[in-house]
Amino acid sequence: MEPTTKRPLRADAERSVRAILEAAERVLAADPGASMEQIATAAGLARTTVHRRFANRQAVLDALAVSAARQLLDAVDDGRPDTAPPLVAIHRITANVLQVKYSWTYALGLPPEPGSEAARLHAEVQARCMAVFQRAQRDGLLSPDADLDWARRVYYALVGESLHGNDANADPDTIAARLVDTFLHGFAAAR
């Protein structure tokens, strides 16, 4: 069976969807049990407009997860993971990802449903991350015997930890520099 393609939204409908998703992120981050009406109010739209775009609350959550995952993939792609020197790519990707994660904390915390578009996008992000790490390993930035899956998990943990505390309000480039330095060198004394 061929997947159906949706017609592109008109510009005003696209703005409404974007406003709904941005409002949903803010409202649900503050109150995960928030209603469709609360999301509509925060978006500055009538509840009927929200229901016209999304059949129910779960549809909003699904769209939110896909939108955030797509932005995350765009952030990674903007770092040129296949063409930029690995150190440059890792830094740029990290700064970009931090910006997305600061803005979409709730949505990116939603576990993607297996087989969903959000899960597919997250898998693409992971594949690009592994490709950059493989290039970094070939260039000598990572040890030749490093377990790259472990390295990816540690990197993700560092990104996640940077979202807490004082780092959440810091410049993403500054945090990315610290994070990448920690990832590549840890806290060992210089040799």
From TrEMBL:
Per the record, DNA-binding region residues lie at 35-54
Q: Which SUPFAM superfamilies has this protein been placed in? A: Homeodomain-like, Tetracyclin repressor-like, C-terminal domain
Which intervals hold domain HTH tetR-type?
A: 14-72
Which is an annotated Pfam family here? TetR_N
Record-linked InterPro entries: Homeodomain-like_sf (IPR009057), HTH-type_TetR-like_transc_reg (IPR050109), HTH_TetR (IPR001647), Tet_transcr_reg_TetR-rel_C_sf (IPR036271)
GO molecular function per UniProt: DNA-binding transcription factor activity; transcription cis-regulatory region binding
Keywords annotated in UniProt: DNA-binding
Enumerate the Gene3D superfamilies for this protein: Tetracycline Repressor, domain 2
| Source domain of life | Bacteria
Q: What is this protein called?
A: TetR family transcriptional regulator
Q: What species is this protein from? A: Glycomyces algeriensis
